[in-house]
Amino acid sequence: MHASIGMRPKDPIELAIFCNLVAAITEEACGVLVRTAYTTFIKEVQDFSVALATPEGTFFAYPGRSGVPTAVALPMEDAIKAIRDWQPGDIVLANDPYTTGGMVTHSPDMTMIAPIFFRGELVAFCWSFLHSSDVGGAVPGSLAASHDEVYQEGLRIPPSKLYRAGQLNEELYEILMTNVRIPYQLWGDLQAMISAFRVATARLIELFDKFGRDRAKELIEECMPRRKRAPSSRGYRRVPIGLSITSMTISPPPIPCASHSR
């Protein structure tokens, strides 16, 4: 059960240290991804992210200065439930918005999830996405304003194991490499994500060793309400609650968009 937002932590100093440590893990993983990625979408645009989530799919650690921080609000639950037998060494790949319950925003966003086990127990997931330069489809780069259906945007992959217990799924690899225009760049970017996962996994296991399994799990639960409170301290509490209407122009006429603030 998640700790309530009003709950007082057992040790506020220890909690602050732990939350900063897990956030630092994601920053380090992002640094690894940037340095080892192949494409300009990562190195120049920084259209990527790396984060840590609970076994239920709730994010508890994410970078504050690297990549796209808003991506960590995306839901993971459907993608996690799609895999029935998580094992050490598994890495799941997906880029389909529909079968992931919205975890993926559009087909170029290649997304990976890897389980983190500590002494045989699933204690967390490492999550990452990056915008791929091409996933096939009607045009180079896979996206165009002229598209009117998702099938034109290239290959769609539901949550599938790219690695099973550390072994490459050769069939999925061949499907990927056959359906994109720059396969070596896509594969290089995916390997960069895997390198980031290795670092994040090793660092989190070190923290579990240091704090102990039970206390580390408690601190993760305490970190989440602390993260929820953080935006309020930066002034977001002044945003009025209710329905606000805005509009933007992609092409005439203007397209109205409704948004709720909570």
Strand order across the biggest sheet?
2-1-5-4-3-6-7
Q: What overall geometry do the principal axes of the alpha carbons give?
A: globular
Unreliable spans are 1-7, 229-234, 257-262
Largest sheet: 7 strands, antiparallel
Q: Helix fraction? A: 25-40%
Radius of gyration: 19 Å
Given the helix and strand composition, which structural class is it?
alpha+beta
- What's the total number of strands? 9
The tally of structural domains comes to 1
Describe this structure in words.
The protein has 262 residues and is of the alpha+beta class. The protein has one domain. The protein has a seven-stranded antiparallel β-sheet. A two-stranded antiparallel sheet has the order 8-9. Strand 6 and strand 7 form a beta hairpin. Helix 1 packs across helix 6, helix 4 crosses helix 5 and helix 5 packs across helix 6. The chain starts with 11 loop residues before the first helix and ends with a strand.
Give a short overview:
This protein has 262 residues and is α+β, with helices and mostly antiparallel strands. The chain has helices spanning 12-36, 40-43, 77-82, 170-179, 183-211, 213-233, and strands at 48-53, 59-61, 91-94, 109-118, 121-131, 160-164, 167-168, 242-248, 255-261.
